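Course assignment 3, question 2. Fill in each field.
Student: A.L.
Task: Predict the tertiary structure for the chain below.
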Amino acid sequence: MKRDKGQDVADAREAAARYRKLAVADPDQHRALLAAHLIILCERLSEAGRPAEALAAAREGADVFRELTATASDPNRHRPDLIDALASLSFALLMHGDRAEMRAVAQEILAIRLELFAADPELSVARPDTYRPDYAKDAATLSKMAVTLIGQGRAEDALSFAHQAVTAYWSLAAVIPDEYRPGLARALSNLSIIFSKTDRHAEGLPAAEEAVAIYRELAADDPAGHRRNLASVLTNLGSILGEMGRPSEGLPACEEAVAVYRELAADDPGQYRPNLARGLHNLAVRLAELDRADDALLAEHEAVAAWRELAAADPDPEFAQGLHTLGAWLADLGRPADAMPVDTEAVSVYRKLAAANPGLYLPDLAAALSNLSGELGKLGLHAKALPAADESVSIYHKLARANPGGYAPALSTALTNLSIAYVGVGRPSDAIRPARENIDICRWLAAASPARYGPALASGLDNLAICLDCEATNLALRGRKGKAQKLWREAVKIRADIGAS
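Answer field:
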């Protein structure tokens, strides 16, 4: 069952409030428990995407443990809890964007551990991996669980594990940086990816930036061990900035990632050509966002060429996606003749992928078929466009029955392409049905979002009027003037309605 993050926050807040009252009545017994529940509240608020409130809870929890440590007859009693609370505070500061204070808190953790070790070198609390024998193992397990859940498409479920992994590695890396900073960087990168997969790009940005900073330092000391990791997190950072509408800031990260992957692929093409292709694709997307169409096409062409070589034996979803993107850009640039063979190849690859895994790739096959039919129509190749458009509509009908809101816009486009293809092959009577169905969908979409779908409704009405005109002409030529006049009157009314709106 999917967790209700709002309810998790409410439960944690209620528990903290309960212990706050108990701590007022009996501070010696309940102040430590109050602080522990404040840290739990911090974690729940972070998972719910409320970084400012999470930071406030973490600050209060850490302050309580600081006070308990300072006033206790045995300071070591609360220092492990203080260290854990400070690790949570560091994470909360990172997610809130306060990186300078975050580093200061990390130094505070290190100072506490060094103080403990100086007072008693045998006191194992100075090393969290010995104080808690399974602590380092737990951090690795949490990170692995997060990656596994991402791979299963369960990004929301992965968030809690990723959050805990970062916090654990933070505490470990504060005292044993050489051993645990790579794990911290990896956990931060995983966290940023999870935020991106849940469309919370702004929340993932600080983690991505910190991962880049750590891997840059690691790669400077050990290029062979960490340059590939640096390139990976740079690619991720560029994508996040692009999704946030900041492509000019994301472009340098993508360019640096491609430069690193080129060097790596030159030495070991078998291992790094896929990474280079992926990096080139992300670079092309950033360039396109900056309206540098020619540069974007060059990068995407190179990415597709690399993927084509890699996918010679087996179909590759990234190769298919690269073809799909390249075809769409060529079409947008008014080059349907160049887009058509690319779209044809995309359909071929997606058809193989969908045959093996229809649940995952059938929507992509439908989109590729729709694009192909559109480009064939622009070239006047309506007889070839018709079967592609018809198959696309058939797939989208199945998908829309299970998820109407998710596939209605794509079905609308496919229906338009199908009606145009029917008119193009001289079958306007068959074109009217998909054209009318498209109007029904567009009206439904425009009712919920007029600004977004109003233009599509107007275009759909115009397309229906064209279909009616063509069919009316056919009927008139066959002597059925009464029905022809009826269709012409409907077409005239539709155009008048478009003009009035």
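Instructor remarks: Residues 450-477 form the longest helix (28 residues). The mean pLDDT is 85.
Grade: pending
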